[in-house]
């Protein structure tokens, strides 16, 4: 690959063999090479493809890289490497762009004394503990390495980006919507079963929350479980009438919220999970 443009000491804009523009990351790459030079493969540490974003966004990211402190680039890379090591599958490559942009802006806001309240901070901490822990690690690492004072609340915002980088989620708006819906469903169920003291630390509850997360994700993507025979649903409907009624209310909420149709298999599994927890 040849150099198109050196963005800073560590980043180079290039083009791969498929003709796709890429950003190459490696220590000292931009310092020692100029336009037209061939980039030594052994010096390339990361490759970021720019084929999945618009021309406008591509231009914005390139400008961001040209103006951002190199130390921040390296620290964000360390955060992403550390985060990737915690999951069985790699996080989206776009996380580098979105997280870098967010953290750069968060630093600017903090230096100006501006703090945005994350209204879903408690939900992120409760329902995505691994991602929140990574967010806390990121804040501590940034504060130590860059000698800054990002507030602990930024851990929740960074966790949003890590959640968003999983499961091929479309965008941050979708991630926020999914977390808000999860909160609403759990609040609805606590209202429907006021006498039940749910152990939120139990395995049954954690399984239920996981089921809801995947259920909401499927509905956002307009995917469904395959519909089977309704015999089991009819049996459950009779045996677990209260739980079935609660599941129907969750079904209605999701259908109105997302303009989707929730099929009977989804309703069946919702009923069974509710019966185990409530």
Automatic annotation (TrEMBL):
One of its GO terms (molecular function) is RNA binding. InterPro entries: BglG_antiterminators (IPR050661), CAT_RNA-bd_dom (IPR004341), CAT_RNA-bd_dom_sf (IPR036650), PRD (IPR011608), PRD_sf (IPR036634). Residues 67-172, 173-278 form the PRD domain. It comes from the Bacteria. GO terms for biological process: regulation of DNA-templated transcription. It holds the Pfam family CAT_RBD. Keywords: Repeat. Transmembrane segments: none annotated. PROSITE patterns: PRD_2 (PS51372). This is BglG family transcriptional antiterminator.
């Amino acid at each position: 690959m040849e150099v198109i443009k050196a963005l800073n000491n560590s980043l180079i804009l290039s083009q791969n063999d498929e003709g796709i523009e890429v950003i190459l990351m490696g220590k000292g790459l931009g310092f020692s090479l100029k336009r037209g030079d061939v980039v030594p493969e052994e010096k390339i540490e990361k490759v970021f493809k720019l084929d999945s974003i618009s021309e406008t966004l591509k231009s914005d990211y390139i400008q961001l890289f040209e103006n951002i402190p190199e130390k921040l680039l390296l620290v964000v890379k360390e955060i992403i490497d550390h985060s990737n090591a915690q999951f069985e599958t790699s996080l989206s490559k776009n996380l580098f762009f979105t997280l870098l942009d967010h953290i750069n802006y968060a630093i600017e806001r903090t230096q100006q004394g501006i703090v945005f309240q994350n209204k879903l901070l408690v939900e992120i901490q409760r329902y995505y503990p691994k991602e929140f822990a990574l967010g806390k690690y990121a804040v501590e690492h940034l504060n130590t390495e860059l000698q800054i004072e990002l507030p602990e609340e930024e851990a929740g915002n960074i966790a949003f980006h890590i959640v968003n980088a999983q499961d091929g989620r479309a965008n941050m708006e979708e991630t926020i919507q999914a977390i808000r819906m999860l909160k609403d469903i759990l609040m609805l169920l606590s209202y429907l079963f006021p006498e039940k003291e749910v152990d939120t630390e139990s395995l049954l509850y954690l399984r239920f929350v996981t089921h809801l997360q995947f259920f909401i994700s499927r509905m956002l993507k307009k995917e469904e479980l395959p519909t089977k025979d309704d015999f089991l649903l009819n049996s459950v409907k009779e045996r677990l009438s209260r739980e079935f009624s609660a599941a129907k209310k969750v079904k209605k909420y999701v259908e109105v919220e997302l303009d989707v149709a929730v099929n009977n298999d989804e309703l069946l599994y919702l009923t069974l999970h509710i019966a185990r927890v409530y």
